[in-house]
Specification:
Chain lengths: 246, 935
């Protein structure tokens, strides 16, 4: 069993806007590319050109349909990675202390040197956000790009997670959710950001901004266009008068 | 508690970053390529780049796997087995090029048209076209004919520019956005960046699409239209706007040909044509004087309600004809709603939305400008409604007129080239009449007289031989498809195999997978490629293919010229070609070899320079016969298309140092591009930023930049006169007339005002027997991404089910894991199905180009792409079924020849579960070793 810190100095996390995510997988692949090169052990792919390719991805997109009684069905694209929970069950379940939550910023990480690949943490995570590397058999997870956000080798503007930097739809935001004045906190307040599966009592740090209503705000009583004339000659009369006015 | 583990937060992944241009799709984003010890380690977006501004899509980030793909070809290949088998031997470049010359040289000397050169997703068309022109064959085009020529042609003829590369919404100012038929493609990052701007401002997005995925999934309102009826929907919107007078009359009068006088006498020799003065200028009635005057004359105010009787002939304005046409009850929402598969009230509501936004939420910028009539305006007023459309509109046989209808809607609202509307990207706008007309006369031993592709202004510009038969193997610019501005690549192999209109000798293809997902009737096409004549010789005697990867098409080549990957080559993204500008700046870019090939491969364009020299083509050799260009980079820097204008606009040489736009060639130009991050931009002056076709400041700037040689202001063509000219010919007037069997199709489709007709295939199949529309989309993570051998992307999209709408799903009793037989008039496939509710109830669809042939792309033969993946192409014929008239009609838009992929109708039935999708195609032998086990 591994202990969680009583509190963290900051609460870094992602805010993901489901109103704008188009499901393009840009974040998925940027994450794969960065972590494959930045992590010493990489993110491997087994059978990459074969019958059952299976690689470690720290971020994946799921698509769901929502069917409605009185309106057409909608599709929601739902990116999912580790939510860096305040009460992270993946940490407390870890038998070796490999899984831990950082005191300074709340990021949940795996110390690969201590990981025995037992998979308990993946079992404990209600979100399915951990992935066993198929060749090294070490547990992998989103690091919130801890090797980018403080990295002085990178230009300051690039010190954000790879998924946030690359998102073409600007659906991903990164910041300190413990600071009510931060841009991410304001977004969460303005858009009623939500926890994923709050009933699991994990207190996830990452927040999701719900899709705005689709097709729903249509006001069926909104005024339709009034004809200027009911027959063609009337239209030409209107035209002539209208041309005189310009 | 034990101390927290230390984490290395100061990782240094690379020791060098090189900036070049992505080629994982057609967007041409800027990328930062990270190298460590000379090896590729990471790719991310270039923050300074005008296209992507730092972001990058899934394909772009996965480029590392494309560059390291096991499917990369490794050396030139000569076929040793039968065509299609994939059995090759590796040969040297000298052997390869000598072999190519041994086939091509005799053709150039005797019959240049027998070399047929088509390029697929080529981003160097101004170069490949130049080479084909020098060779002298009329048979050259790229893939536009099966992609989106309908969009390009409709846009150019109507307003001198089209969607995507030619223009884009004013994302920062628009207040209502309509998106038609964008099947997760065109464009990628620019579209997402734009949509996110709209979302940030709370701008309403309306999507018109039978399928609600991707961009359509985030739209505020969905119009789940029945495929092929978008044109009818748009004309109904126009009906509503006209009926309520919600049109911008001032804009129409000043900037369009709404006021032009048209011969309305059905017996006249010039019926439907403009009334012109002695100098050939179209005439209108000047509302200020009541007298005839040139439509584009200084200080003239064209009268939209004018009429004139001259020499016994009544002339009325284009606007009157337009109003009468669309005010007809035929276009009333209640009349069209059922056909479009939507509610009449949705049409009425959207029309009201358009009108309210355009006229009650108008934008005015305090930015003075002067128009081409000499009038000074204090402000710029905009109607903040914008639109974008792509393949869902263009890939129908009524797509040209549908795209025209969308442009007419935009123009009636006064929303093109205004703040908040749709804006052109330099070097556009450029009207149809400023483009070349087609050149097609083949002369042994001589180059072609000019560019192959262009915009005919009437029957006189058709590409016909003296005997009236088509000059081109694809029959582009013939009476069958007169305005085929991008050619008809999808007809090349079928026509060549049939020897119709003539036999060819050498088929030369670049970057086009015609033996698989880029052809209709895929299986038939594979047979045509390997068909033999009575003496056992191949009907198409020689096939040369250049590709970087082991594709399905490579297996059908006699000779393979292995291309480099996109990080190992020079390229120019040229203003002469398909540029990367945005509405506020002209831009072009380069690729350069940020990696050195580790294989015996050459960039195709450099190989063409070499071939040009070996064939002594004009422009490719000096006076003494020495090579004119060392390689493609040399061409990019030193070629001049016109004096002072070359492939790249930046850092040319002027009288005092560098000059941009026009200038002498600079032998170190590419170095300047590299130093600037791989691209060049020139900002459009503020006064020139809107009203570009009519804005004197823009016209002057365009001349300065070298886009035109003199100012070319022009008016938007609501009424397209060249279409009227083809009608006249089809109705028996004029000296050049179509064959009798083509008169009726031309009269049915060549209307100078947009018209809607049902997709032509519907006249060839029983709607009761084949009740469902069948479509494809390219997934965002793979659109244009040159194959699913990419180890990361194939984990995202490795198989493609057929998505079935709820009512059909229930009626057939389908459940998860089921399989279905899908049948069209042309063939059948057996595939696995999945349910989708957010789908037009008469439509099924799948992801395109996931399915692969066994043995291709260095995939294992058991790969899901090769077992469960499938192509809808097997159901789509390139020729419509016979119907007893003795003719076989091409499955194309009769105006432009655009491949009508999305006209497909099918039926579906449940079958027992299968191990593999049908048809099962025999494996090809791989010329490269299979991909490794683990990575």
């Amino acid at each position: 069993m591994t202990a969680l810190p009583d509190k963290t100095d900051r609460t870094l996390g992602l805010v993901i806007d489901l109103d704008i995510c188009v499901g393009c997988h840009a974040c998925v692949v940027a994450c794969k590319g960065w972590n494959d090169t930045s992590q010493t052990s990489g993110l491997s792919d087994s059978d990459p050109y074969g019958e059952a390719p299976e690689g470690a991805f720290l971020n994946r997109i799921h698509s769901y349909e929502i069917t409605r009684e009185d309106a057409p069905a909608t599709v929601v694209h739902f990116p999912k990675s580790c939510l860096h929970c305040e009460d992270a069950p993946c940490v407390t379940v870890c038998p070796t202390g490999a899984s831990f939550k950082r005191r300074e910023d709340g990021i949940v990480l795996v110390n690969e040197d201590d990981c025995i690949g037992c998979g308990l943490c993946a079992w404990a995570c209600p979100y399915g956000a951990r992935e066993m590397d198929p060749t090294t058999q070490v547990m992998k997870k989103c690091t919130l790009c801890v090797d980018r956000i403080y990295n002085e080798e990178l230009p300051e503007i690039d010190r954000e997670p790879a998924c946030v930097r690359t998102c073409p739809a600007n659906a991903r935001h990164f910041g300190d959710l413990s600071d009510p004045g931060s841009a991410v906190s304001k977004l969460v307040a303005a858009r009623e950001g939500m926890d994923l599966m709050p009933e699991m009592d994990t207190r996830p740090v990452n927040k999701y901004l719900p899709p705005r209503p689709r097709d729903a705000e249509i006001d069926v009583l909104a005024p339709l266009l009034e004809p200027v004339a009911e027959e063609p000659r009337g239209f030409l009369k209107w035209l002539d008068a209208a041309l005189d006015r310009i | 508690m034990r101390p927290e583990p230390q984490v290395d937060t100061q990782v240094r992944i690379s020791d060098e970053v090189r900036k070049t241009t992505c080629y994982m799709c057609a967007c041409r984003c800027g990328i930062d390529v990270h190298l460590k010890d000379g090896k590729l380690v990471y790719i991310e977006g270039n923050r300074d780049h005008p296209v992507n501004k730092g972001v990058l899509c899934a394909k772009g980030s996965a480029g590392i796997m494309q560059v390291n793909s096991p499917a990369r070809l490794r050396a030139p290949l000569r076929r040793v087995g039968p065509r299609g088998s994939g059995e090759f031997e590796e040969i040297s470049w000298d052997e390869a090029l000598d072999l190519a010359v041994s086939w091509m040289k005799p053709l150039r000397d005797t019959a240049p048209e027998k070399l047929v050169f088509f390029t697929g997703r080529d981003q160097s068309q101004s170069f490949t076209g130049y080479w084909a022109q020098a060779f002298g064959t009329p048979n050259y085009a790229a893939h536009g004919g099966f992609c989106s020529v309908n969009m390009a042609a409709a846009g150019i003829y109507t307003m001198g520019g089209a969607f995507w590369e030619f223009g884009e919404p004013d994302w920062d100012r628009t207040k209502l956005f309509l998106l038609f038929g964008v099947a997760e493609d065109h464009a990628s990052n620019p579209m997402k960046l734009g949509l996110s701007k709209l979302k940030a401002r709370g701008v309403k997005i309306i999507s018109v699409n039978p399928i609600r995925t991707g961009y359509n999934a985030i739209a505020d309102e969905w119009v789940g239209i029945t495929p092929g009826t978008d044109g009818l929907f748009v004309l109904s919107l126009i009906h509503e706007l006209l009926r309520s007078g919600k049109i911008d009359l001032d804009y129409l009068s000043r900037y369009t040909n709404a006021g032009v006088l048209i011969d309305c006498d059905p017996k006249s020799e010039t019926e439907g044509l403009f009334l012109r003065d002695d100098e050939g200028r179209p005439l209108c009635i000047d509302r200020k004087t009541g007298k005839p005057a040139p439509l584009d004359g200084k200080a003239v105010r064209p009268d939209l309600a004018g009429s004139l009787r001259r020499a016994g002939i009544t002339h009325r304005t284009a606007f009157q004809l337009l109003a009468e046409t669309y005010l007809s009850d035929d276009y009333a929402p209640a009349k069209v709603a059922k056909r479009c598969g939507i509610e009449a009230n949705q049409i009425r509501r959207i029309a009201a939305d358009l009108a309210r936004t355009a006229f009650e939420e108008a934008i005015t910028l305090d930015r003075p400008w002067t128009d081409f009539r000499g009038e000074r305006h204090k402000t710029m007023t905009g109607r903040p409604v914008s639109m974008h459309a792509m393949r869902g509109v263009s890939a129908h046989s009524n797509g040209f007129q549908t795209a025209r209808a969308i442009h007419v809607l935009q123009i009636l609202l006064g929303s093109v080239e205004v703040p908040g509307g749709f804006r052109f990207k330099p070097p556009y706008p450029k009207p149809a009449h400023a483009h070349p007309v087609p050149h097609h006369k083949a002369t042994p031993g001589a180059p072609l007289g000019g560019p192959h592709l262009g915009y005919p202004q009437g029957p006189e510009h058709l590409a016909l031989k003296d005997d009236g038969t088509p000059s081109r193997i694809d029959k582009a610019f013939s009476w069958e498809n007169p305005l085929s501005a991008h050619g008809l690549m999808h007809m090349v192999i079928a026509n060549a195999a049939a020897g119709d209109p003539y036999r060819i000798d050498t088929l030369f293809l670049y970057m086009a997978n015609m033996a698989w997902n880029s052809s209709m009737n895929t299986r038939g096409t594979m047979e045509m490629l390997s068909a033999t004549d009575d003496s056992g010789d191949y009907t198409i005697p020689h096939i040369i293919v250049s590709d970087a990867y082991s594709s399905e098409m490579v297996a059908y080549a006699d000779l393979v010229l292995p291309d480099t990957t996109y990080l190992e080559r020079h390229d120019c993204i040229s203003l002469l070609d398909r540029p990367i500008s945005d509405p506020d700046a002209a831009a072009d870019a380069i690729r350069w070899p940020v990696l050195t090939p580790d294989r015996d491969v050459r960039s195709f364009q450099s190989a063409l320079c070499d071939l040009g020299h070996r064939l002594s083509l004009p422009g490719f050799v000096d006076e003494d016969g020495a090579p004119r260009f060392a390689d493609y980079a040399d061409y990019i820097q030193t070629h001049e298309r016109r004096a002072g204008v070359g492939p790249l606009a930046g850092w040319r040489i002027g009288a005092k140092g560098y000059a941009h736009g026009r200038g002498e060639p600079n032998g170190a130009q590419i170095d300047s591009y590299i130093a600037n991050g791989g691209f060049f931009t020139a900002h459009v002056p503020d006064e020139a930023a809107f009203f570009k076709p009519w804005n004197a400041a823009y016209q002057d700037w365009a001349v300065e930049m070298g886009f035109y040689d003199r100012p070319e202001p022009y008016l938007f063509q609501l009424y397209v006169e060249p279409l009227a000219k083809f009608r006249l010919a089809a109705s028996g007037r004029g000296t050049r007339q179509p064959p009798d069997h083509l008169r009726a199709p031309i009269l049915a489709t060549f209307h100078p005002l947009p018209v809607w007709y049902p997709p032509l295939s519907e006249g060839f199949s029983d709607p009761v027997e084949y009740p469902l529309h069948a479509l494809t989309q390219r997934p965002m993570a793979m659109y244009h991404s040159w194959g699913s051998q990419n180890a990361w992307l194939r984990q995202i999209h490795g198989v493609n089910p057929l998505f079935v709408p709820t009512a059909v799903w229930q009626a057939h009793g389908f459940k998860d894991g089921d399989w279905a037989r899908v049948t069209s008039t042309h063939g059948e496939i057996v595939v696995h199905v999945a349910h989708m509710a957010a789908l037009n109830p008469h439509t099924v669809w799948t992801w395109n180009a996931i399915g692969k042939r066994k043995g291709a792309w260095a995939l294992s033969p058991g790969a899901p792409e090769a077992t469960k993946g499938f192509l809808l192409n097997h159901l789509i014929p390139e020729l419509l079924p016979e119907r007893g008239d003795g003719m076989r009609w091409s499955n194309s838009d009769p105006v432009t020849g655009q491949a009508a992929w999305f006209d497909l109708k099918v039926k579906i039935e449940k079958v027992d579960p299968q191990d593999e999708a049908f048809p099962v195609i025999a494996a090809q032998t791989s010329p490269v070793p299979p991909g490794g086990q683990d990575r």
